[in-house]
Amino acid sequence: MLLHDILDRQARRSPDRVAVRRGAVAWSYEVLRRRSVGYRDWLRDRDVGRGDRVLVAAPHAPETVAMLYAAARLGALYVIVGGRDGYVGRDGRAPEGEARVQRTGGP
């Protein structure tokens, strides 16, 4: 079973149960599933597919988790990066050629 299959199964079983929380932001499994499908479509529109790398630097934990699931849905690899510790530059982007898509917020 793949990562996104586990999310989909849990969303069917307990759609209203909290899946991810950070501070005052809490998303249910169904909300997380829907957001990950939206991100998947956004990534697919940018020709992301199996084996491509997606750098994820989202501002909130729920957004980050949704993007990770979206990349998994496409068979893409994801790399979580941070501005202070990672190799993301001051402009919020990684060096050229490191990833097909770089996203720092919602679609």
Structure description:
The chain is α/β, with parallel strands linked by helices and 107 residues long. It has a single domain (3-103), classed as Rossmann fold (3-Layer(aba) Sandwich). It is 39% helix and 19% strand. It contains three helices and five strands, in the order αββαβαββ. The chain has helices spanning 3-13, 29-45, 61-74; strands at residues 18-22, 25-28, 53-56, 77-80, 101-103. The strands form two sheets. Strands 4-3-5 form a three-stranded parallel sheet, with helices on one face. It has a two-stranded antiparallel ribbon with strand order 1-2. Helix 1 (3-13) packs antiparallel against helix 2 (29-45) and helix 1 (3-13) crosses helix 3 (61-74). It is globular and about 30 Å long. Residues 83-90 and 103-107 have low confidence and may be disordered.
Strand and helix layout:
Elements (H helix, E strand, L loop, with lengths): L2 H11 L4 E5 L2 E4 H17 L7 E4 L4 H14 L2 E4 L20 E3 L4
Parallel strand pairs: 3-4, 3-5
Antiparallel strand pairs: 1-2
Helix pairs in contact: 1-2, 1-3, 2-3
How would you sum up this structure in a few lines?
This protein is an alpha/beta fold and 107 residues long.
